Amino acid sequence: MSLTTPYAPQTPEKVKTSKGKRAVPKNMKPGEFLKFDWPDEQQWELVAATPVLRPSPDFRHQILLGRLLHEWIKWCDISQDYGAIASMGLLLEQAESVLCPDLMIFAKSDLKAHKPGPLNLLPKVVVEVLSRESATLDHGPKRDIYAFIGVPEYWIVDPVSGALTVYTNPKDGEFTQLPADTSGFVRSPLMVRRLRVLALIAFLILFFSIGIKVAAPNDVLLYLYPVSAAAMLLAVLVDAQAALGVALVLAFTTGFFAHDSFEGISFALAGGAIAALSLGRIERLQAFLWSGTYVAIANTAVIAAFHIIARDFDWASWGEALVIALANGALSGLIALGSLFVMGKLFGITTPLELLDLSRPTHPLLQKLLIEAPGTYHHSLIVGHLAEQAAHRIGADALLVRVGAYYHDVGKTYSSPSFVENQLDGVNVHDTLTPHASASIVINHVQHGLALAKKYGLPERLREFIPQHHGTTLAAYFHRMATKANSDRPIDEKDFRYPGPKPQSRETAILMLADGVEATTRAERPATPEQIRATIDRIVNERLRDGQLDESDLTLRDLQQIKVAFFGVLQGLFHPRVKYPEAPPEKVDSEQ
Fold first, then answer.
1. Fewer Cβ in 10 A, N or C end of the chain?
2. In a domain, 212, yes or no
């Protein structure tokens, strides 16, 4: 990589080392930089092969950095998927740089897999606190370096004005700067979903706590109050961990308003825990019925246990308690089911029931795909099956990835004959087009798909599958054709790459792999299990080497499990068939 540094820092020509004064080379390789005997009291960076002395941070810089670090650590603790690291060297060999950002956010899975030595991982977020001396570097060469290596988000914070600049979506070595919203704030894409989840959790705790306080003076109302509905909602909309946490909070809230009643705490906690564990990524409405039944059984068990401990064998009292326990379970299930859609819309979270509705073959957009691009429609069904099985294998959201697969190629309806699966008459329109024109048509199906998704009101989480299933991959065939036809001049690879972004979740990454594997196996028609395995390995390794999976949080173990799932499905599709001999023609009696 070659990056010029327009900023000329006041870098000393010599530095004091343990072996006396040494001249500072004007250009260095990252390995040379790391081995150089730099003074302990100074902090140096290598910016595009140029050694640069970092300015000493002032008081405001350190105060702001401390606050930022505190907030990010709190967020990382809540998310449980990320970790924060402050003021540590980051080795970027491909950019000939060794930088020391003020703050970096990494995926915990990357940190666990990191081996001892220089930190050479790709951060999810890089934060720099601005100073007068570093402003040109932070907004110039460093920004270009982070865009070049594909850092998803780069923050620059000004301690004087309080301004926050967020760069995101690196493409072709350039960032997109996020605009401020109507309130004047810039929203981090990484935080948006987490903030929605936190808002939902806070709302449910507040809402149900108020209900508990109102019901507390009356024992019958308190035990009838469907507090387990909160855990049911969170189990479906977020995950079981969040649901269990809220169930615990509401159980102690019940005990507090019920004057430290251990029975009240146990009743609320048992029902909430069962609700959290019995629901998850539901695909049928009856799941709420079963969850309500389990809650009712748990409630009954708690009440029975406390009656036995108290030696209360008044059968009338037992009957009343049993009715209340059963009614509580039924109410919890009904309220959770009734409010699921409202909560999802209110907090911008796609619900399983919404996904199930969108998976109907009669959905207008799927009908459009079936009629106008039938080959693409059937390709999408097979990709959905592949992706669903892979998601089950690694514990990802199988329903989300299956429905995402149904819609990922809807943009092909704009020019369906341009795609091989729809060329039913054998005529290839690309035979009469230049490679650049062909690549433009093929790549533009992403933008057409996004336009259709918006027109038909697809939720945001489904729209993400449309651009991310290709990431920034190369339309390799047309690129090779262009290179062959223009051997006398270089071809700009950017013209043949998809716009991205790269997959940002495990689900979109699974779809990228399933899409590539299905298309390749359909074209090559592997005849043996070994050929199927070789095709799967090749596609997965190509995406891995191209850096398409860097931002998806997939682990190497996940990839192995995904390949196993793909093989199981494709082996069923391409298994050899026995060719039976034709039956001999029947002899006809001449007399007849």
1. C
2. yes
